From TrEMBL:
Residues 6-250 form the Nodulin-like domain. Belongs to the major facilitator superfamily. Phosphate:H(+) symporter (TC 2.A.1.9) family. It is found in: Membrane. Residues 322-537 form the NFD4 C-terminal domain. Its main location: membrane. It is a multi-pass membrane protein. This is Nodulin-like domain-containing protein. It comes from Solanum tuberosum. The keyword Membrane applies.
Amino acid sequence: MEQSSKWMILIASTWIQAFTGTNFDFSSYSSDLKSVLGISQVQLNYLSMASDFGKAFGWCSGVSLMYFPLWVVLLIAAFMGLVGYGLQWLVIQRIIFLPYFLVFLLCVLAGCSICWFNTVCYVLCIKHFSANRPIALSLSISFNGASAALYNLIANAINSKDDTLYLLLNGLVPLVTSIAVLPILWQSRSQTLRADSVHREYLNFRCLTILAVFTGLYLLILNSVSYSAQTARIILAGAVFLLVLPVIAPGVICTEEWSELFHPNYISLEDNDTDDLEMLNELIWKEASSMNVWTENSDGSKEKGSWTSSFLLRDRLLLLGEEHSASLLMCRLDFWLYYLAYFCGGTLVLVYSNNLGQISESLGYRSEISFFVALYSACSFFGRLLSAAPDFLRNKMNYARTAWLAFALIPTPLAFFLLVLSGSKAALSAATALVGLSSGFVFSAAVSITSELFGPNSAGVNHNILITNIPLGSLLYGLLAAIVYEANLGKPDQVLVLDGSKVCMGRNCYIQTFMWWGCISLLGVASSFLLFLRTKAAYDSQERNRNWMRLI
């Protein structure tokens, strides 16, 4: 009943995420798109940026949810993707001809559809799992990292030699998935969580996370081996079975609910602890009001602290979960530190993933592009799952979620500097795995951080404001890579003509780019560390209040 339908909504969210991560496979068909359109590397970069530019309009999905039900927003996203990717497939098949500018707009539309899908999933998790919101978000978002591996399996099961097939799948698969989950979304409504259900919900999440890890290992290991179309179909069937397997959970929960009808020993949050909650709110506000950026002397006068302490304390967040309107959000220093950390971390890795096909080709691994894309996707999947670690380990080691964000960004500069030192397949594999883990953690944790720092009810709009840095970063970082790439095309010993298109070969095609990207990612680490120092007190206050609630 109520609890079982809630778990079906979570499962529907994981299915949407698993089959709508269409931005991961751009590297798989980018070379073919470049050849068909007869464009330069800089122009190809603009198409990659266009997909990310569509995310600048992602806030529209949050606004649309104020006027339309979730299932309507989901179908709008599906049809945007169908038009955006479907027409590109017709172009790459030479069935129709469109000028470069219209292809650019199709990429924008396709990128926008991804944001709309994500917003639907974020709202579903935030709305139905208030007690374990971060775990629900990380579990759902993690399956987005499995998209490239799943699409790779589907493409190989149909025709492994046709890379343009990815565009057709990008348009059709999300539409089919959206139609399949519509009956579940029609019954979507928020429910009050019973006090005795919190622990059981937590245990269910642990079981689902273990199953998700097994699914990720299954996709990672079996995608790394060569196989025929028949073998791909068998592996794909196994993957689909693992995605459907969590449906068992609602059945178990439903059985438990029937047993509770005969043993009603639970306590409702609505019927108890009202006085305790009022006391807790009063305690929080008293503690928050005691925090300020000035220190008082014994005679009552106020003295300004050092420049460092002034920066760390000025206008910092005092409470977690306080709702922020868009205008208030833009005035927060904490938001801009968060924005910079994301801009120099997660967004930078997205540009790396978009250029992964060209990077692999330049280093001499053209035949291994699908492997590197699947590796990035699988590691991104595990990174997203790891973002739930702060919640699973809270009783053993409690750190602010912003601290975990800072730690998660550290592998990114290490990966880029590794590529500066070596262009071997092992180095490229290790670097791709590192940035996949790092970006996966950041993308998943960012939704929870946005919800905690700036309010859960505003998360749909505020998180889409945050990711407006993606098109900006895609333009700047991608343009940097394209300029370095084009500069090396002027050297005859580094040019190879493939399918009528000039290809830069050798480490020099990207080595300067990797150096710049490594330095920029260090700035992201520094910004995230400052964000942690400014928000640490708010997280500590939340943890003290949570411990206090356990005692009353």
